[in-house]
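Assess the record.
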Amino acid sequence: MGSSSERSPFRTDRLVLVLIVGATLGMVVAGFGLLQATSAPSPSSSLTSSLAPTQTPVNVTVGPLSSATPISREFWGVDISAQGTANSTDGARLAATPVKVLRYPGGSLGERLNFSSNLIYSSNGKSVPANTSISDFIADCAAINCTSILQIPSEIDNTTTVDFLVNYVVETLHFQPTYWEIGDSPAGWTHLGVPWTEWNTAQATNITPLPFAYLVQNYTRAISAVDPAAHFLALGTGLFPPQFAKAWVTDLATIDGSALSGLTLHNYPDNSSAVPNTLNGFYSGLGSNVSIKQQVTHDRADILAACPNCTNLTVFVDEANAAQIPEFEPYMSTFNGSLFIAADAIQGLRLHLANLDWFCFDCNYTGAWETSAAHVQSQYYLFADVLDHLENQTVPTQVTGASHVLALTTYNSSGMALLVVNLNRSHAVKLNLSGAEFCSTPRLTESYWSSTTPLPVVSNRSVTGEPVLHPLSLALFVQGACSLHGPSEPNPGGSHAAAGTRTAPVPAQPQLSLRRASRSGRVGA
């Protein structure tokens, strides 16, 4: 480690990146001949080293590094569905991502799964075996030393059954969940207080905010008697304007604020038939009044107003993706879905969320990371090949001049990573990295991804180059540290856990995926 008189590789004042916005999609495609799927990139050039069309300046301002904020170790998560297919590759695939939080049994199954019998009940009272049992989940959790969120059935409103299930998990399986979660979409319950075997489709017994808050109170007391080490989350619902389910949040904070570690929200910003069924409509949810930013901002304010002293009560977004409606299914499993998630993750990191869990690892959902046939889909590669290379602190990053460009800088003493997402369908962006104060050596590792490349393409480039992102694309620029003079470090929670000098990998030529050689089942491999 160098002396304090040595120059820091990253300037501690504000770092400025200059982006240039191009003209039209037609011009961009013409200028990006090497981005066509039929063209192989030159071994000596990166995929973003192309002539830019007509340009308009856009600024991205980064820093100061002294304002770097640690990313919660519990930030990155994914739902493990009981209806998914457990297999021997799950642990390794999860370990190749930044995920540290696993939620089980996922979505509405939290109200319908009996852990001890491994049966999932439907609205007609019939049951089927779960494909992924709680024992399978525990194995996945052990593979990554996970933080666990275990959903406890709440619609049945039966503390005797719940106590039995908690005892089964803690005493019989010897598993202590990090959190027990109470409630999944309670506003949509129709079988309140009815045993699973007596459910039928004609029932319409629901619950309202205040009774739900008292149900949560009863559950926390009953579970704590069986599991004194228990910690609790509650609510598990999507919140929509104009009130963002204020009554649910307020009553929970007022009645249960001291007993809970957090309130859980679900975010699917495109879940509205009013959103146009177009690609522009698909991306519009990121900036809409139901975006993750809007939901979290409103609910944080409601929690503070209802319980000013509840400093323990934070917001978990433990179920998130773009949409749950069929209109947008064609986009979810493609690169478009991954680009949406990259932008949503940037927003979540800017909000300094305690937790953001994606739906889901393996389930019957078009945005799943895997299908039941263990076929890995696009969103998985975003996490394994791009987001896993972010560092463990965020640095303030401002974008001005173009609302369609999102950028995020992450940092620790082992290096810096800059993620840039271009959501515009007709404008390219050109970045001048000279203001970023990346050290002159080593060279940057660039991971570039667009709809014209089946997977992120990795190359190395000069620090002084000017990368170009064509419409609907993303790029991650990573550089290892030259010397260590950044802010003091917490213990990293991500994959880059070892502090110290890191040399960024420098492949001999552009290649698909940083880890392609180490995994099977690759799309396009």
